[in-house]
Write a structure and sequence with these properties.
Blueprint: H1 2-12, H2 22-37, H3 49-65, H4 71-101, H5 106-129, H6 136-153, E1 157-161, E2 168-172, E3 186-187, E4 190-191, H7 194-201, H8 207-214, H9 218-229
Antiparallel strand pairs: 1-2, 3-4
Helix pairs in contact: 1-2, 3-4, 4-5
Length: about 270
């Protein structure tokens, strides 16, 4: 009875069964149990003893992982196991050819690839029709456990491919010793520095200086001025540059009185 209730819960989590009533689920679970109890005679498809043993082992594993509800699912499972055993046979033949002649016939390699494609298609079909026994919560818990293991093994570093030299780079991460700040050389995702543009507008540096500091071209600087500095498309000219700011007077400094203009008087 406990196995039947567990099976009902597994069937309820399948998308095609979520609208069924409890009575319908009970009836369906009983049919599945009846189907499982009826033996799938997979061994009759093979004559070799090793292949029979492999087929029986695969059948037990698939019945543990999948819900086989009807005759169609059983036939799909039967064909899938046959192709998997056939793949085992092809691989053994390929190993023998490689051992004797140090080469594998291309026709045999093509058969292996084609058979593997058919296996993947049947597995996908079995997934779509019957579904795995793992429900959503169990799958989520498995993902959490896998992520926790990965996090413990990759806690202090990250590995990446350098975009410049295409060599592997190891990044050691200690976020508790770093303060995230706004990047000084980007505006959104555009290479940009506000103070450099300010100095350029005040004629303190040239456009070539900015290009060398940012390691870009003069044309890129023109584009930044057009798109970022002047969104309306106006070019930065002498008329619209920021004017020089007057220097602030120092404390205690007073403006010198203007000298009174004198007019030299001529003789009368």
């Amino acid at each position: 009875m406990k196995d039947l209730e567990t099976l009902k819960g597994q069937l309820r989590n399948l998308p095609q069964n979520r609208d069924l009533t409890d009575t319908q689920l009970t009836r369906k679970a009983e049919e599945v149990e009846k189907t499982k109890s009826s033996k799938i005679d997979i061994e009759k498809l093979f004559t070799d003893l090793k292949e029979k043993k492999l087929a029986k082992s695969l059948l037990g594993k698939y019945l543990q992982d999948y819900i086989v509800e009807n005759i169609s699912d059983r036939n799909i499972l039967q064909q899938l196991i046959y192709l998997e055993v056939l793949q085992y046979r092809f691989q053994n033949d390929a190993n023998k050819f490689h051992k004797d002649a140090k080469a594998t016939p291309s026709a045999l390699v093509n058969q292996i690839h084609e058979n593997l494609r058919m296996i993947m298609d049947l597995k996908k079909l079995l997934d779509d029709r019957s579904g795995r026994k793992d429900d959503e919560i169990r799958t989520l818990n498995k993902l959490k456990k896998k992520f926790r293991i990965w996090l413990d093994e990759n806690q202090g570093h990250r590995t990446m491919l350098c975009p410049h030299c295409a060599k592997m780079v190891l990044l050691r991460i200690k976020m508790d010793q770093w303060d995230p700040v706004k990047h000084p050389f980007f505006k959104d995702r555009i290479l940009y520095n506000e103070h450099l543009m300010y100095l350029y507008k005040k004629d303190k540096i040239t456009k070539d200086d900015i290009a060398k500091i940012l390691n870009c071209s003069d044309d890129f600087i023109d584009w930044v001025i057009q798109k970022v500095e002047k969104p309306n498309g106006q070019k930065l000219t002498e008329q619209n540059k920021i004017p020089e700011e007057p220097e602030a007077e120092k404390p205690g400094q007073t403006e010198e009185p203007k000298k009174q203009e004198t007019i030299e008087s001529g003789g009368v």
